[in-house]
Write a structure and sequence with these properties.
about 325 residues, alpha/beta, seven-stranded mixed sheet, two-stranded parallel ribbon
Length: about 325
C-alpha cells in the first residue's frame, strides 16, 4: 500500500504475483488513488505492507476495527521511484523477502492466442474509435515528443484512426507525419478525424503493410507505433523494416500490451480498465491482452533484428515500452 497506487504498491503487486501460493492486491490511501483501500480489502488480507509510516497511521486512524489482529509492516520506501523502476524492484525484493518466500517464481505465461491482424470491418473500427484512450494517448504523445527532433519526418506504423498523431501534431507543428495502417476502415475514420482537426497538410494517411513498406532506406527521423505488434503473427519483419526505414540516428518509440501470466490476471485487467465499456469492447481488450508478447519475447526479437540502443521495459501493469532517443 502507498498513497496513489500507481508506482510503489503497484510494483510490489506485480512482483508478488509471480510468487506461487500468494494472492496479492494493492491499493492507495489517498482519495485520488487508482484503487483506494477499503475495509473489505483490509479484511481480506492476512498480511499488510505499507510503504511509509504515514500510510500505517492513516489506516489506523480510519480503519481501526479492520486492523484488529492484522500484521502491518512498514517497508520505509519513499516516493522516489516510478512503476517497475529497476532500483525499486530490487529494494522491494530485498525488503519483502524477509517476510515472504520470494524464490518460488512462476516463469510460464499463458499461451499466446492470435487475434486478426487487421481490424477491417466498419463496425469494429467505429467501436475501437469510440473507446476512451485519451489518457493513454496523451502519455504516449508526451513521451514521443520528448524523444524526437524539433522538426522532421515521422512514421506512425499502425496508426488506426490517427488519434495519436493528431495529439502530437498540435504540439509539434514542424513534424511531418506519414501514418500507415492495413485497415481501410480505420484509415477512413482517421481521415475524418484529421480533417476535423484541420491537420490534413501535416498528416498523410496511407494503406500500407508495415511488414513490407515501400519507403527508401533511411527515410524517417523517427518511428512511433502504438499497439501494432500484438496484432502481428510474427513481428520480426516489421522490426526489420523499422531498422531499415529509419535514419541511422533516428528515434524510436514503441508501446504495446503485455501478455499477462494467467487468465485471472488478464480478467482483472479487463475489469479494471474497461469496467464502463460494453461487452464487445471488453472482449476486444481481453483478446488483445492474450495476443500480446512478454517482455522477454520483445527483447529477444529486438536483439535478433539488431535494433541497437533500445531501452525496453515494463511501463505499466499492462504495457511494455521500447524507446531510443534521437542520436
Amino acid at each position: 500500500m502507498c498513497s496513489q497506487n500507481k508506482w510503489r504498491s503497484l510494483t510490489a503487486q506485480k512482483i508478488c504475483e509471480n510468487v506461487s501460493g500468494l494472492s496479492v492486491r494493492s491499493a492507495g490511501t489517498e482519495k485520488s488513488a487508482r484503487i483506494r483501500v477499503t475495509e473489505g480489502l483490509l479484511g481480506w488480507a492476512d498480511l499488510i505492507f505499507v510503504m511509509e509510516k504515514k500510510h500505517a497511521d492513516r489506516l489506523a486512524s480510519k480503519f481501526p476495527e479492520s486492523l484488529k489482529g492484522k500484521k502491518v509492516i512498514c517497508l520505509q520506501i519513499a516516493d522516489n521511484y516510478e512503476y517497475m523502476q529497476p532500483e525499486l524492484v530490487e529494494i522491494l525484493q530485498a525488503k519483502l523477502g524477509s517476510d515472504l518466500e520470494m524464490s518460488d517464481s512462476r516463469t510460464s505465461f499463458m499461451q499466446r492466442v492470435l487475434e486478426p491482424e487487421v481490424m477491417d470491418s466498419w463496425e469494429e473500427a467505429v467501436e475501437y474509435d469510440s473507446m476512451d484512450f485519451t489518457e493513454v494517448n496523451a502519455a504516449f504523445a508526451k513521451s514521443a515528443i520528448e524523444l524526437g527532433p524539433m522538426s522532421g519526418k515521422i512514421l506512425d506504423a499502425g496508426t488506426g484512426t490517427a488519434r495519436i498523431p493528431i495529439a502530437i501534431a498540435r504540439m509539434r507543428p514542424d513534424w511531418e507525419f506519414t501514418c500507415i495502417d492495413l485497415s481501410a476502415n480505420m484509415l477512413k475514420l482517421g481521415r475524418e478525424n484529421v480533417c476535423e482537426a484541420n491537420l490534413r497538410e501535416q498528416i498523410q494517411l496511407e494503406q500500407i503493410d508495415a511488414k513490407a513498406m515501400p519507403y527508401p532506406d533511411s527515410s524517417f527521423d523517427m518511428l512511433i507505433s502504438n499497439s501494432i505488434i500484438h496484432h502481428l503473427p510474427d513481428p520480426l519483419p516489421f522490426l526489420s523494416e523499422v531498422k531499415r526505414v529509419l535514419k541511422p540516428n533516428g528515434a524510436i518509440f514503441l508501446r504495446d500490451l503485455l501478455r499477462p501470466e494467467n487468465v485471472a490476471i488478464r480478467d482483472n485487467l479487463v475489469e479494471m480498465y474497461t469496467g464502463d465499456c460494453n461487452s464487445h469492447q471488453k472482449q476486444l481488450f481481453s483478446d488483445s491482452l492474450q495476443a500480446a508478447f512478454t517482455l522477454n519475447e520483445i527483447q529477444t526479437m529486438s536483439e535478433t533484428v539488431g535494433l541497437e540502443g533500445l531501452r525496453i521495459y515494463e511501463s505499466s501493469d499492462r504495457h511494455w515500452t521500447a524507446l531510443r532517443a534521437r542520436m
